[in-house]
Amino acid sequence: MVREEIDRRYANVRAAMARDGLDAVIVSGNEYTGFEGAVTYMSGFVIVHRYAYVLLPLEGEPSIVFPTEARYVGEHGTTWIEDQVFVDKPGEWLADRIAGMRVGVYGLDYVMTVRDFRVLGDAAEVVHWDEQFDHARAVKSELELESVRDSVRINTEGFWIFLEQFAPGRSEREILAPCERYFVEQGCGRLTMDMVLTGPNGGALPEFKIAGDYRIAPTDMVLPSLEIAGAGGHWVEVSRAICPGEPNDETKQMMDAYDEYYEAARGALRAGATAHDVHRAVSKGFHDRGFKLGHVTGHSIGMTMIEWPKIGEGDETELAAGMVFSMHPHAISQDGQSCLYMQDTWLVTADGGEPMAGLDMKIFKGDER
Questions:
Q1: Cα angle vertex 50, ends 23, 101, to 5°?
Q2: Which of 47, 132, 183, 216 has its CA 20 to 30 A from that of 232?
Q3: How many CB atoms lie under 10 A from the CB of residue 306?
Q4: How far apart are CA 52 and CA 111, in angstroms?
Q5: What are the b/e assignments for 134-159, b being 16+ CB within 10 Å?
Q6: For residue 91, what is the enclosing H or E element?
């Protein structure tokens, strides 16, 4: 990692710390897929097992803190942080270092271990700082965008491999396995989260599931959810629906709404727009047709799989050029028996959204090559 990029990251985080009156920030990460990236972003270290923290003071040098049992479950030489600390109870060490301070913590919602959190509150004023930290890293540098583009390249090729393997009569895992092999060969390692949605009679059911031994029928619809991070550590999401037969009528209406979303996103994902305005623009076609949306229409994505800001109702965050978003409206019929869920990774520019994968927005038949 070049020093200029490290300094840029720390400067952005420290500017946000100063704005919020913080003396330090603790960034948490663990091996749960998609939750390791904040520590990597702040240190260069990739968590192989257990968990770790980065302590960044407003002034002075950072520290990276590991539980003692994690001494040999990661390549510690990959971090650029010189102060590497191994202790039985990281929370107690952190509490001693931050005593009397006002400290922001990234990871209170999902990541920080309970045993460490319990001792911090007695030592310092702990501030929930997940959203603020994500906003500080939301605009990607050119170096980061190189990593994003490489991840998109890998993930897009993964979809084409899935499509090449796809055939009625084959099981879900038989189709997905070559994708996973390719992802590992390309340097993704464990940073993959690949699932499928399937359903009969030209409409997929809305529940995500791990690929299993179910064999695809000629009238099924299959939605692979392909989410990976390449060797640079930036997550992306790229995928399309596949239906060898005829999509049902509701799915066809969802596809019409997807066409509208795709065009709306090109104009809406521009610098100066708000996340709320983007959500309203891209979700309109689905709501007009009476479909439910399973969750937010999109979210910032980076070295952590899901970051703030979200593309959703009421989020007034102003977008800036260089932000990257995963967009995936989860359209669901009123009876819950059909859905459409197709993913794209978008770059925000001054002129509008740039879909980075270049896949046609359509339901594939399965015989395309």
A1: 15
A2: 132
A3: 18
A4: 10
A5: bbbbbbbbeebbebbbbbbbbbbbbb
A6: helix 90-97
- 8 Å CB contact between 182 and 226: no
Record the tokens describing residue 179, joined without a space. 């994708």
Residue 242 has what DSSP assignment? B
- Residues linked to residue 357 through DSSP beta bridges, in sequence order: none
The whole-model pTM stands at 0.94
pLDDT tens column, 263-292: 999 999 999 999 999 999 999 999 999 999
Domain boundaries 142-355, CATH class: alpha beta
3-136, what's its fold? Creatine Amidinohydrolase; Chain A, domain 1 (3.40.350)
pLDDT, tens digit, 9 for 90 and up, residues 184-238:
999 999 999 999 999 999 999 999 999 999 999 999 999 999 999 999 999 999 9
The residues near 98 (Cβ < 8 Å, ≥ 6 apart) are 23, 24, 26, 55, 120, 123, 124
Helix axes 172-185, 142-165, angle to 10 degrees: 150
Task: With H, G, I as helix, E, B as strand and everything else as coil, classify residue 87.
Answer: strand
Task: Measure the CA–CA gap between 27 and 111, rounded to whole angstroms.
Answer: 9
Query: What is the Cα–Cα distance from 278 to 35, expressed in whole angstroms?
Result: 26
Give residue limits of the domains in the chain: 3-136, 142-355
Distance of CA 206 to the CA centre of its chain: 20
- Look up residue 87 and give its two tokens: 């202790």
Show the tokens assigned to 47: 């968590």
Return d(Cα 301, Cα 326) in angstroms, integer: 6
- List residues bridging with 354 in a β-sheet: 347
